[in-house]
């Protein structure tokens, strides 16, 4: 029990990660997929941040007191970068969703698959029946 | 010494030059074709000069180093020079014949055809003179790919299908087995250079020798050893000059030549004999000889019958390699030359019959001999040489193969060769008999031979078969041995 | 002065050129700027390669003057110097071709943005190769991927299927990159460092390796996704086939290769041959998936009629061969993968650039489109033929060299059966290449089919790569040496010494008798 309590942050991260991953895989709606992707990424951010945190540690600012305990700033900084990357990914993703909606009129995976198939058929016809 | 090197460059370069000229002179038909024949004659001269030059030390020309230990090297040795001579001297004749045939039969795309024909000869020359296994493999593949457009030349669905079978069998077998064999030799011996006496003796466990030999025997699909023979009959849809090229000059000969060269200069005859590694191949080759002869009997299409005859005859050469005795190897080498002269005559005749009368079925040829006396006389000579009747060249090589079988104590093989000769007599003799002694739809009428460009080559090659019998001394090679 | 800053310039040059390209008011300016930047990057990578080949010692560049492991370092060693010219060279040649391809396929207003994304993607790839910092790899990975998604989506102007393809690519790409970050986080927890060299040193001292196994699994999985290793390859074919032709050429030739390189760096540079389970689990997995991928990709290509997708499927097979090379777990195997990485970039670049010439003229690029095209556009079709021959591995092409060294490495390690199966799958490439040959040369062009045209300006770029393919097939010595040098970075081969092949045993046995 104490094992679990000591590592509660990891369990949280894993639960979050699986939730997000499930949404990415199982949801047919592209917006929901993106939301899932965000949750998935966030879980990783949490992993890094919680790893850097030390109980009782302060912000890493030089105080002149050799006894003061800092949290490790590096993972936090890394995650700043990763958040920026995540935001960019989200932006590109939603931009694509908008464009998909504009050209196909749907953002549901299964409906889209039908439309893509009909596109393929159109190509096939154009190829086998000379214009 | 200088001149040997020059000759090597000439032999490799002249066909390429002819190919380049073909493209450049595409618009001037006569000039385009004339230069090919002319360059062919020069090539033949060079091949003869190389063959007759007696060099105690083999001269080596390294063209390029591909990677560490891997070079494109050319080293003439007796067997290779013989093959170069065969290919080189038949090339101008085949080219001349091609001109007559292509114009006579109204085929299209002459330039493409002549171009790839020349490239194929280049590849055959390179295989003949190759100084190591890599060079041999590289040009073996070049030969396959350069003959594909020839096989598929007509562009019909059947031609494409034949092209698929041709390429499918040849490339797959060579990539899967032959290349595997080449790399294995490289790993085992640390070198790929051909050396008299072989390079594998003492380098590998004798137990694995049959396996490695198998990689080569079935990797060299061009040798058409059963069951890898399917491509050869399939390729019969091609124009007849291609069949001549495939059967006599370049492709199959390159196959059996490679087989012979590998067993002599990579394995070494003594090593094969000592390990009995090639015994199984003797039986496979024997089966190939007999089975193909029997199939040939059942074919009524002239070219198909000749194709199976070729498969059977190639079996002789593989057999010679597998018997692993000096006499058998010499016989096999000689058989490359004698069969080339004989079979090219037969194919030239088949093509001439097609050009003049558009006939390809044997049953329609009754009495045709009276209208095409020259063609069928030549055919008879070629057939007799293949059967092995003196005074035609084929007699010698068969005799030597039998002697080789005796040396290796495969007495049953001697009996088998005799049976095979009998079968040859039946399936080739039938054609001659029908043409001269039966009367049929075509027996009446004036003489109607094919154009002269078709007739001259077939007469020359028929006379070659005759001449070879008397000059055979010059073409018997000695391969070490005990 | 400049010379010592080359490692950073390699990345910075295209990175800085990108915003300027985006701002270019005339569309040709964007292209010219891109051309100059990619030419510069190519020149820099050649200089770096020359320096490494001459001196043999790695160049370590401390970013901002902070030495490792505190600062981020850029490391140019035999391995990264080998891959850099591949990426930047293909980038340069693809840029040359991009001029006519982009004019034909992309709306004029979007050209500046297109070239900005193009430069970013290149900068990202070059960054992944140069950097010596594991997290920095992730950042560059995302830079190249994000701009890559945008580039793929730009195919929507002609083919709206590019949009869903780009979206799926984005989802899977991001999942892959996130897996990589998870693994990296675990490694950081164990070692407290992100510097690749430092990681490998500190990992050796770690006592409880279990988190490292998980890290290895996550990182490998993430990179398998990015390099499109079977069965994580499904994003690749749609993305490549609906993207603009120039993008397909660039990405097919470089994007997956860079991921292979990163995988090599992490697997062998950080974990090393001796890491527990490396040979059995990771090696076995790579061999198995590589072989499966080789067959699945080849069979998919055989039944495909859309030409871009056909060659995309063939890429999956070719990546399978690279995975096999890595799975051997010897430096000979890694060298074989490096050789194939180089050669495959040349072949696929040539093929897709040549396909671009046709794609720019027709809406659908299928076998039907090229019926009888051999006479109308001989140079383009010959380029495709030669590229195809190289894919099969015909001698005198670069593909043959790849195959030779891959098989040799397999046999060296006693993996005879896998060598045999690899032979079979490589021979199958003949089938799909030959479908094209039959359609292009041995079929009459339908009478109502549109007339295809070509100009030297269109096919020249593809031919540069075709000639390189043949050149490196005939004269491969320097390439082979450089590849073996690159593989040497990851340490001597431990495995090879312990494994014996039957041939060697036989030799020893015979020596014993004498």
Strand content of chain C: under 5%
Question: Oligomerization state of this entry?
Answer: heterotrimer
Which spans of chain C have pLDDT < 50 for at least 5 consecutive residues?
494-514
H/E topology pattern of chain B: HHEEHHHHHHHHHHHHHHHH
Main structural class of chain C: mainly alpha
Shape annotation of chain C:
globular
In whole angstroms, how far apart are the ends of chain B? 30 Å
Number of helices of chain B: 18
Compressed to H and E, one letter per element, the order of chain C equals HHEEHHHHHHHHHHHHHHHHHHH
Largest sheet of chain C: 2 strands, antiparallel
Structure description:
The complex is a heterotrimer of chains A (131), B (482) and C (514). Chain A has five helices and no strands. Chain A is mainly alpha-helical and 131 residues long. Chain A has a single domain, classed as Helix Hairpins (Orthogonal Bundle). In chain A, helix 2 runs antiparallel to helix 3 and helix 3 packs antiparallel against helix 4. The model of chain A has no long low-confidence stretch (mean pLDDT 83). In chain B, helix 13 (302-323) runs antiparallel to helix 14 (326-357) and helix 16 (394-407) runs antiparallel to helix 17 (411-437). Chain B has a two-stranded antiparallel ribbon. The longest helix of chain B has 33 residues, at 157-189. Chain C has helices spanning 6-23, 27-55, 78-105, 111-130, 134-153, 162-191, 196-205, 210-226, 236-242, 245-271, 278-303, 307-327, 331-359, 373-376, 378-392, 398-412, 416-441, 456-474, 477-488, 494-498, 502-513; strands spanning 59-62, 73-76. Chain C has a two-stranded antiparallel sheet with strand order 1-2. Chain C is globular, with a radius of gyration of 22 Å. Chains in contact: A-C, B-C. At the A-C interface, helix 2, helix 3, helix 4 and helix 5 of A face helix 5 and helix 6 of C.
């Amino acid at each position: 029990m104490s094992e679990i309590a000591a590592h509660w942050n990891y369990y949280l991260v894993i639960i979050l990660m699986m939730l997000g991953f499930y949404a990415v895989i199982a949801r047919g709606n592209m917006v929901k997929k993106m939301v899932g992707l965000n949750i998935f990424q966030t879980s990783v951010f949490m992993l890094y941040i919680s790893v850097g945190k030390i109980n009782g540690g302060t912000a890493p600012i030089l105080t002149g007191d050799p006894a003061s305990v800092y949290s490790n700033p590096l993972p936090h900084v890394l995650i700043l970068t990763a958040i920026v990357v995540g935001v960019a990914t989200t932006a590109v993703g939603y931009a694509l969703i908008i464009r998909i909606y504009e050209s196909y009129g749907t953002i549901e995976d299964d409906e889209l698959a039908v439309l893509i198939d009909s596109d393929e058929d159109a190509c096939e016809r154009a190829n086998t029946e000379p214009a | 010494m200088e001149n040997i090197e020059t000759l090597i460059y000439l032999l490799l370069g002249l066909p390429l030059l002819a190919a380049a000229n073909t493209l450049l002179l595409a618009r001037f038909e006569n000039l385009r074709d004339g230069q090919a024949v002319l360059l062919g004659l020069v090539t033949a001269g060079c091949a003869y000069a190389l063959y007759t030059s007696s060099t105690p030390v083999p001269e080596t020309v390294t063209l390029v180093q591909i990677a560490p230990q891997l070079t494109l090297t050319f080293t003439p040795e007796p067997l290779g020079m013989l093959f170069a001579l065969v290919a080189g001297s038949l090339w101008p004749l085949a080219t001349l014949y091609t001109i007559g045939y292509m114009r006579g039969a109204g085929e299209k795309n002459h330039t493409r055809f002549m171009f790839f024909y020349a490239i194929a000869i280049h590849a055959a020359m390179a295989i003949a003179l190759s100084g190591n296994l890599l060079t041999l493999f590289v040009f073996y593949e070049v030969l396959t790919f350069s003959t594909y457009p020839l096989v598929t030349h007509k562009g019909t669905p059947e031609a494409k299908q034949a092209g698929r079978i041709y390429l499918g069998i040849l490339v797959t077998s060579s990539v899967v087995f032959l290349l595997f064999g080449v790399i294995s030799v490289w790993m085992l011996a640390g070198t790929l250079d051909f050396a008299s006496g072989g390079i594998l003796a003492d380098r590998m466990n004798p137990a694995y020798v049959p396996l490695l030999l198998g990689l080569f025997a079935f990797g060299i699909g061009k040798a058409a050893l059963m069951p890898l023979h399917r491509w050869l009959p399939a390729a019969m849809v091609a124009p007849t000059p291609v069949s001549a090229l495939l059967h006599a000059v370049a492709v199959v000969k390159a196959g059996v030549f490679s087989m012979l060269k590998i067993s002599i200069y990579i394995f070494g005859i003594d090593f094969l004999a000592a390990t009995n590694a090639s015994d199984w191949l003797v039986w496979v080759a024997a089966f190939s000889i007999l089975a193909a002869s029997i199939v040939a009997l059942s074919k009524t299409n002239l070219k198909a019958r000749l194709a199976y005859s070729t498969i059977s005859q190639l079996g002789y050469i593989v057999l010679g390699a597998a018997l692993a005795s000096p006499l058998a190897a010499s016989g096999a080498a000689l058989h490359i030359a004698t069969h080339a002269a004989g079979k090219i005559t037969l194919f030239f005749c088949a093509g001439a019959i097609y050009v003049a009368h558009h006939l390809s079925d044997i049953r329609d040829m009754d009495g045709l001999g009276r209208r095409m006396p020259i063609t069928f006389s030549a055919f008879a000579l070629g057939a007799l040489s293949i059967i092995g009747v003196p005074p035609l060249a084929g007699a010698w090589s068969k005799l030597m193969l039998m002697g080789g079988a005796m040396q290796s104590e495969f007495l049953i093989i001697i009996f088998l060769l005799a049976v095979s000769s009998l079968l040859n007599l039946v399936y080739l003799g039938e054609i001659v008999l029908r043409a001269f002694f039966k009367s049929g739809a075509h027996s009446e009428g004036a003489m109607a031979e094919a154009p002269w460009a078709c007739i001259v080559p077939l007469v020359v090659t028929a006379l070659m078969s005759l001449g070879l019998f008397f000059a055979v001394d010059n073409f018997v090679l000695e391969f070490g041995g005990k | 002065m400049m010379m010592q800053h080359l490692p950073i310039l390699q990345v910075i040059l295209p990175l800085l050129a990108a915003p300027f390209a985006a701002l270019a008011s005339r569309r040709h300016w964007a292209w010219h700027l891109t051309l100059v930047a990619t030419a510069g990057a190519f020149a820099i990578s050649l200089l770096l390669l020359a320096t490494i080949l001459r001196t043999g010692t790695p160049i370590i560049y401390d970013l901002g003057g902070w030495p490792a492991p505190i600062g981020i370092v850029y490391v140019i060693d035999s391995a990264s110097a080998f891959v850099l010219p591949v990426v930047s060279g293909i980038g340069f040649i693809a840029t040359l071709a991009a001029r006519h391809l982009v004019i034909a396929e992309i709306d004029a207003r979007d050209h500046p943005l297109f070239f900005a994304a193009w430069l970013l993607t290149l900068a990202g790839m070059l960054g992944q190769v140069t950097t010596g910092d594991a997290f920095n790899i992730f950042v560059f990975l995302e830079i190249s991927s994000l701009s890559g998604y945008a580039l793929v989506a730009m195919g929507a102007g002609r083919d709206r299927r590019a949009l869903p393809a780009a979206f799926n690519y984005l989802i899977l790409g991001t999942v892959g990159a996130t897996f990589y970050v998870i693994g990296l986080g675990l490694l950081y927890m164990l070692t407290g460092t992100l510097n690749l060299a430092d990681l490998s040193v500190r990992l050796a001292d770690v006592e409880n390796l279990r988190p490292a196994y998980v890290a290895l699994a996550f990182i490998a999985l993430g990179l398998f996704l990015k390099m499109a290793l079977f069965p994580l390859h499904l994003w690749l074919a749609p993305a490549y086939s609906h993207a603009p032709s120039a993008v397909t050429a660039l990405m097919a030739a470089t994007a997956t290769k860079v991921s292979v390189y990163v995988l090599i760096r992490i697997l062998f540079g950080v974990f090393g041959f001796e890491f527990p389970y490396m040979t059995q689990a990771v090696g076995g997995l790579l061999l198995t998936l590589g072989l499966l991928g080789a067959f699945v990709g080849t069979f998919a290509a055989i039944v495909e009629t859309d030409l871009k997708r056909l060659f995309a499927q063939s890429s999956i097979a070719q990546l399978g061969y690279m995975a096999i090379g890595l799975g051997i777990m010897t430096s000979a195997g890694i060298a074989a993968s490096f050789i194939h990485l180089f050669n495959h970039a040349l072949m696929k670049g040539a093929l897709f650039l040549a396909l671009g010439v046709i794609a720019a003229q027709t809406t659908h690029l299928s076998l039907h489109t090229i019926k009888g095209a051999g006479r109308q556009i001989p140079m383009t079709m010959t380029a495709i033929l030669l590229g195809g021959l190289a894919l099969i591995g015909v001698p005198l092409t670069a593909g043959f060299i790849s195959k030779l060294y891959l098989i040799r490495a397999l046999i060296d390690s006693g993996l005879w059966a896998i060598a045999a199966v690899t032979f079979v799958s490589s021979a199958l490439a003949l089938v799909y290449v030959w479908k094209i040959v039959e359609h292009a040369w041995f079929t009459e062009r339908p009478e109502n089919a549109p007339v295809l045209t070509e100009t030297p300006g269109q096919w020249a770029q593809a031919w540069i790569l075709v000639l390189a393919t043949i050149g490196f097939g005939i004269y491969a010595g320097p390439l082979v040496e450089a590849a073996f040098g690159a593989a040497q970075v990851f340490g001597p081969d431990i495995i090879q010494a312990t494994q014996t092949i039957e041939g060697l045993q036989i030799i020893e046995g015979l020596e014993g008798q004498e």
